[in-house]
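Why predict the complex rather than its parts? Because the way molecules touch one another can change local conformation, and only a joint prediction can capture that. The input here totals 946 residues.
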Amino acid sequence: MSSRSLILENLRSSAPQTKSESIVAPFTIGPGAVDLFEEKATAAGAKVLIVDGLPAAQDKIKEILAEVAGDIIYSGDEFLKELQLKDIIDTSNRTASEVHLENSADYRKIVFAAAIGITSCHYAIAESGSVVIEHQHNNERLVSLAPETYICILREEQILENRYMMAQIIEEKAKLPSAFTLITGVSRTADVALQVVLGMHGPKNVYLIVCKNI
Amino acid sequence: MQVSLFIPCTVDGLLVDIGKDMVNLMAKLGFNLNYHSEQTCCGQPAITAGYTEEAKKSAKRFIEIFENDEYVVSPSGSCVNTVKYEYAKILADEPDWSQRADNLAEKMFEFSQFMVDVAGKIDVAAQYAGKVAYHNSCHLLRGLGVKEQPIQMLNAVKDIELVPLDGAEVCCGFGGQFALKYPFISEAIVKNKVKKFIDSSAEILILADPGCLLNINGYLHRNHPDLKAMHLVSFLANHLEGGTN
Amino acid sequence: MKANPRMFKKIAKEEAANQAQIDFMGMVSGVFNYLCDTAMGVYGDDMAQEAARTTGGQIRHNTLSNLAELLEKFEEKATANGMKVLWAKDADEACQTVVELVKKYDAKVITKGKSMITEEIDLNSYIEEKTDAKIYEGDLGEFIVQLRGTAPFHIVGPAINLKLNEMVDILHDNIDMPQTEDANEIANYVRGFLRTQFQQADMGITGVNQAIASTGSLLLVENEGNIRWSTSAPKVHVALMSIEKVCDNLVDAFYLAGLLTRNCTGQSITSYVSLINQPRLEGEHDGPEEIYVIILDNGRSKAYLDEELRETLRCIRCGRCCIKCPIYLTVGAYPYSNSYPGPMGVVLMPLLIGVDETEDLFEACTLCGACAEICPAQVPHLTLYARYRQMKAQGDREFKATSSITNRLLFKSFVRGISKRKFYERGLSVARTFSKRSVKDGYITRLPGPASSWFTCRDLPEIPATTFKDYWESEGYKLAKEGEKDE
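Output of the joint prediction:
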């Protein structure tokens, strides 16, 4: 008998108990999802920048890029296109080379060498201060993981009150992307003598630019 | 109120004063006391060691002795916990008996639980000008859910200063046979408990379980003979306004 | 690690004498309990928090009520998503399955996400024995412990007990880290070292926090990024889960994850949560090309047959019970000698390796109930401890419990001794005579025989000449009557 049948047979041979409905009451939070998101993400180690309108968002990206040297990799996201991210990088007065995913045959080499990764996200969660990325074509996993600095640009309307809302939205999707990643602040460890060190295997600097009115 | 005393073996054979104090105190407060002289031990050691088949006999005997009483009250949270909750479990395969166990359970109370929840006697007219701390015994706190009752009774003592005890809800390391089987672990735990007691600056550590009392006082007697723990019943009975007698 | 809880007493004795370690654990548990309590505060007051634990317990109950159905549903969905689901009845089969995959993909470098189940089956040793692959634990603490060759000390802080200089020496000796005592520099050096391994790894191995039946997804939580790396960079991802790590839907999964992180590190959510649905699709540049999920039984389905023992499988491995357990906080993880230290292992290990082998785990317990009180999955610890003690007392073939004739006789005579007041008093009188010679100033200070261990650190009041019953019959009853008059 295969292990599969063996295990399932064992599990089936005891009478099933009645299943009680699990009721997860969603958190309810008042208005001010952006403020809560800012508070929680900041507490988790991210730098949250709230900007009003497209030009302000573009200026903020320029500011950060002016401070951080090195290669840039960014995902081929529609929102980043709308933000004209490519132009910002091109016009920014920097010597670093830029890469984006659409023209990338040598992706691994590039992403491992990049100093800055830029993506948008698909949802954000106020209650935990998380951004949520759907990984699929042009939204690669390592862009938000390998570079030392990570910038995520999102729209205010993407902020959901809580994780259960997100779970419900995902659950109802007809087709799931390869993976989702929830990023909450900066990766961390307390394994060295209980001292909190930020940026263990992931980016050390995380910027979350929340755009209003775009 | 008609109260039947359940005096656990630790009190009957060793800490007799707690029993005497309970009689003094409750009689003074007007309770009509009764004591079944054929009572022995509730059988807890056998139950916790897993000899539940064997312990059924003790449980049945206990039920027969006490089941016709109006209220049964005991100065041991741990033993009350056994009778109140463990009896019905070990007798589960004998529906008649588990029903009788449940009936008894409803009338069975730990001292402070009875005084506060049933009799409404929070203030026993005691007076003590000094600092005390309270240790929550596990079976009172997590077994019976008795948390506030002893505190309420202590707070009602005139002039008393009840100081916080760090880790008051942490086990003292007694655990019955555990203390004999793993004395080195038990020692480390009781040592820590006593350290917290000393740090609290209380003069007396009050608790409501003879098992914990044997452990903590036994450790204090050996290592800090100037310090003592006291059973809540004894503390109250010995500090009644206008003297104990 | 190979479980060997028979060593419990010996190791526990050494650890319990280490006062500095006990003080350290007291301090650390204080901090973590505070963080966890604060994090649980999001649900509201004490009652609301209890309600949250009840919800967690209910989700686990639902899983355990329909385990076969959920596993099959998960298998069906995950397979439709393109994952490959394999089953293993025991540790050997699971290890063998992984080794075959290592060979199939000719994996030379393997990185791991922190996982307890791979500790349970001692996977690293097995792979190292059977293949040439190099395995790197990706979690910093776990990596240090791997280099040191010892067991993890705590599920979240595997190396939490190591002093800074010990840690530095290990890293210096094994991976040439320059001497430094700066935590940032240490972490940064290991980051660089492991980064190379993550980048060249051929295979990533992880556990699973929850498998979701409705979507066929895997949910994994972490703070460092080792799981993200192991599931993003290598071409093959192998995920191991035990049969109970499945739940019905995503909302349930996120609810449990919230209880897990709040009770583990006191975080509302970990830095990273990965929800993995399928291997990389056409046009994607990263993510594994193949995902294997190995569902491990290892004795659990046998426990499942018993409705009481089944409750063990509620555990979500937050480890909160450990930092509430007076025994764990005194002796640390090493005496437990298995991958699940503290109450987590006490409820699980007897079912996996037998009751006789694990006797010290459930005997070295004061039944204080602090574990059960805090458990966000509502594992009924005390019921389980009682059950194991009963198995040991009465004997149980299925779970390898041999009863001791001596103990049985002892308790039989105890029960007989309390069956009549006459016998009971005779016993008391024997004890009184026996202890009389050891009495000093009203206290017994030592005794020979089975009770001798009481006196290693404490005294006992002498046994008075008269009992409470004697008092009652001579004086007490008169007072009681007075009480009656007053009323």
